[in-house]
Amino acid sequence: MSNENSVIDAKAVTDNGGPAPGGWLLGTLGVLIFSFALPANAWAVEGFHPLAVTVWRALIPGLLAVPILWRMRAPVPGRGSWPHLVTAGLCVAVGFPLLSSIALTTIHPARAAVILGLLPALTAAFAAAFGRERPSARFWMISGAGLLVLLAYLTTRGGAGGLTLGGGDVAMFGATCCSAMAYVLGADRAKVLGAPQSMCWTLVALLPLSIPAGIVTVFVQEPAWSARSVTGMLYLAVASTLLGYFAWYAGLARGGIARVGQVQQIQPILTVCWSALFFADALDPLTFAAGAAVAGLVALGQREGRR
């Protein structure tokens, strides 16, 4: 892939225009990859300390990003891009994984999915506040309806744990805010640099911190090695932190952060399905009904965006 054909023309993405062709599909692919991140994180913290999960989740993809950028012959970003890239990196590779790992030591992945259901709304709000996007009032109403359906469903499931809040819930909410801010900043740079370059430079910018931190964790931690913990760690580092963001940033940049971001309302439903499959949770038919309702509202939101 060359640098020229990976950059998204910022003029093609307007504040009030609809998603460009492929934006919704790329966003859906990113959501599918992200949907297994919480179960994978739960696996990873079975054998690694949450701090070690955070460090290696940034270090491994950061080291992989170097040859990717070299192969692309990607130019070094301009001075104005680095504040966005560094802040997005701190949010996506430090804030979210650290806080979500802490949360998953005390709450179930399905309960974490309830809180993560706030992500599309927070992303749209941050895009309006910092990304200069102005979705219509009908768009906000449809998005809010999808969020209400999602939370109403998830909070009725036993695995979600009800509405009583604890330290793990607060940590997961902080992680969700970090992720939303990273989406806005990273997608903004993806319009200029290209989606792969935006994420790769974000991870490379953190290497001065992640390399020494990774060395320290090797000496201070005694991991409990297992197939599940290693699989979870590798999935978080390679699939969720690297490949998933290639698709996700491209989708947000092409179709608009607020609009394509609403596709993520489907992610908690998918996470609950993964939790049922890998954690032996009960999966009732209501899951499919709620998923269909949320998917329909997301489709209406996308149609409203195209208007």
TrEMBL record:
Membrane-topology descriptor: Multi-pass membrane protein
Subcellular location: Membrane
Transmembrane spans: 24-45, 51-70, 82-104, 110-130, 137-155, 170-187, 199-220, 232-251
GO terms under cellular component: membrane
InterPro entries in alphabetical order: AA-Vitamin_Transporters, EamA_dom, EmrE-like
Domain of life: Bacteria
Domain EamA per the UniProt entry, residue ranges: 23-150, 168-294
Main location: membrane
Entry similarity comment: Belongs to the EamA transporter family.
Protein name, per record: Permease of the drug/metabolite transporter (DMT) superfamily
